[in-house]
Specification:
Length: about 210
């Protein structure tokens, strides 16, 4: 004898089709999380470069983000060769400088200047004292700024564009990572709105461009 199953009052009976629909509705979230995770790992290096460079360049009025000023003194034994070119070659050899200077000239009867793009050596030909002054690149920051400001070859533009696209993906996919009240339909919407309000308020309060 067949017995009919009576649905529980107040509850809707779940059909197989409804269950499959719910599974299809949320099946994309694990893939989204996996892509978000891997994209985040992939751009870690670029994010560090752009973040540090951004902090450095943001304060360009206060310092040179790519170079720092140097001033060093050296003492060489006398006598120095009499000709300017020979004296310059001798000084650079003693100081371990192998680059070719851009210019060598007499600043005075007793001073010979050896000029490079970022450095100048002021040589006192009577005392043998050498004053080295100029600029040296900051460790890592000069390279990071060179990339951030897109001063490299044109190919870097494609890398920077790809990085921007990945950042957009991370921002947008992050909105849908968590369901429910802590996600986009609840707390997430509030936090996202507060974040978007930061640049909007600054433009409003500063008067804009």
């Amino acid at each position: 004898m067949d017995t009919a199953i009576t649905p529980t009052p107040g509850r809707k009976s779940a059909t197989p089709e409804a269950g499959r629909a719910r599974r299809r509705r949320w099946s994309a979230r694990p893939w989204l999380r996996a892509l978000h995770r891997d994209a985040g790992y992939f751009v870690v290096g670029l994010t560090i470069i752009y973040a540090l460079s951004g902090l450095a360049v943001n304060h360009i009025k206060d310092w040179d983000p790519s170079f720092h000023q140097i001033e060093r003194s050296h003492q060489l034994a006398l006598p120095l060769p009499k000709s300017d070119s020979a004296a310059a070659e001798h000084v650079l050899s003693k100081l371990g400088v192998r680059d070719t200077p851009r210019e060598v000239y007499r600043a005075s009867d007793t001073q010979l200047d050896i000029v490079f793009d970022q450095l100048t050596f002021h040589v006192d030909t009577q005392s043998g004292k050498v004053l080295e002054e100029g600029q040296e690149p900051r460790f890592f920051l000069r390279l990071a700024n060179w990339l951030h400001l897109n001063r490299g070859k044109k190919a870097w533009s494609y890398v920077a564009d790809g990085y921007a696209v990945l950042l957009l993906f991370l921002a947008i996919s992050g909105l849908f990572m968590i369901p429910g009240k802590k996600g986009l339909l609840g707390r997430g919407a509030l936090v996202a709105t507060l974040g978007a309000a930061v640049p909007a308020l600054y433009v409003l309060l500063s008067g804009g461009p």
